Amino acid sequence: MNATDSHDSRTGRLAGKVALITGAGSGIGRAAALLFAAEGAAVGVLDRDGAVAEETTALVVSAGGRALALTADVSKSAQVSAAADALAAKYSCIDILYNNAGVDSRGSVVVAEETDWDRCFDVNVKGTFLMSQAALVHMGQGGSIINQGSVAALVGVMNFAAYCAAKGAVVALTRSMAVDLAGRGVRANVICPGTVYTPLMEPMLRTRGDGDLDLGLERTLVKYPIGRLGHVDDIARVALFLASDEAAFMTGSVVAADGGMTAQ
Ligand code: 1HS
After folding, report:
1. Which of 51, 214, 223, 226 is the most buried if burial means most Cβ atoms within 10 Å?
2. What gap in Å lies between CA 99 and CA 191, rounded to an integer?
3. Strands 96-99 and 66-71, how do they pair?
């Protein structure tokens, strides 16, 4: 099987598109990189950690896809500009941006630390702003931006003050982007995932379980009517839909993908 058999860059749902995905070295970002490439996109695999960006890129390429590893801290404007420029230099333009990179936070408003607040806003909010600005230089007329929100933007999640506030800002920024960019044919939508079980979530789950991971999981699962936490592909598939022309009439939408967590 050759590259065009396994990854159809002519007839896939993202055929002929160039996508940039942040935080693509692991988790949801890696799943999205593999999925977008399988649907025909050339993918910029951006991560702060260059080694994991290379790993994802190798996985995409070994599956027959096209990808370029990019290393950048999304909160640094020079780094994100250089990354966007490098992707556009290789593949001519950028059609899709998935602002997936993010960090969580610790503590309620009573105990949250200023440094944690700043880091949370730097990566989640400023990173989304800077990366969008850098990608838009290469987007021209038409494109799709998908931002990563969270259920924490829609409901209060205990001991997550900075994260809730930052993800709320991402939702507001997405709406602003949607109205500002509609005239040039660029859509902007935000996904609000419920908790996806990854190693990165274990500290939160452990804290919730008073140090016991299984108890933390149990206390979290009761919040999810569907009876399970998310899988990375649950969210990557929503991002794929929003990236594709199937979502042509969607902009400024806040799409919960949360197993019913915010429906209660
Ligand atoms: C980290 C992710 O965006 C979800 S915030 C925590 C929600 S819950 O699983 O505690 O209900």
Report:
1. 223
2. 10
3. unpaired
Angle between helices 127-136 and 161-181 (to 10 degrees): 20
Domains of the chain by residue range: 13-194+233-257, 195-229
Mutational test site, ligand 1, from 28, 157, 223, max ligand atoms within 8 Å of CB: 157
Cβ atoms of residues 113 and 107 within 8 Å = yes
- Rounded to whole angstroms, how far apart are CA atoms 174 and 128? 9
User: For residues 187 and 253, what is the distance between their CA atoms, to the nearest angstrom?
Assistant: 9
Residue-level pLDDT at 5: 42
Instruction: Provide the CATH topology of domain 13-194+233-257.
Output: Rossmann fold (3.40.50)
- Compute the distance between CA of residue 109 and CA of residue 190 in angstroms, rounded to an integer: 25
Burial class (CB in 10 A: 0-12, 13-18, 19+), 225: exposed
pLDDT at residue 196 greater than cutoff 50: yes
Q: Decide: 151 in ligand 1 pocket, CB within 6 A.
A: yes
Cβ–ligand 1 distance for 150 under 6 Å, the answer yes
The pLDDT tens digits for 140-183 are 889 999 999 999 999 999 999 999 999 999 999 999 999 999 99
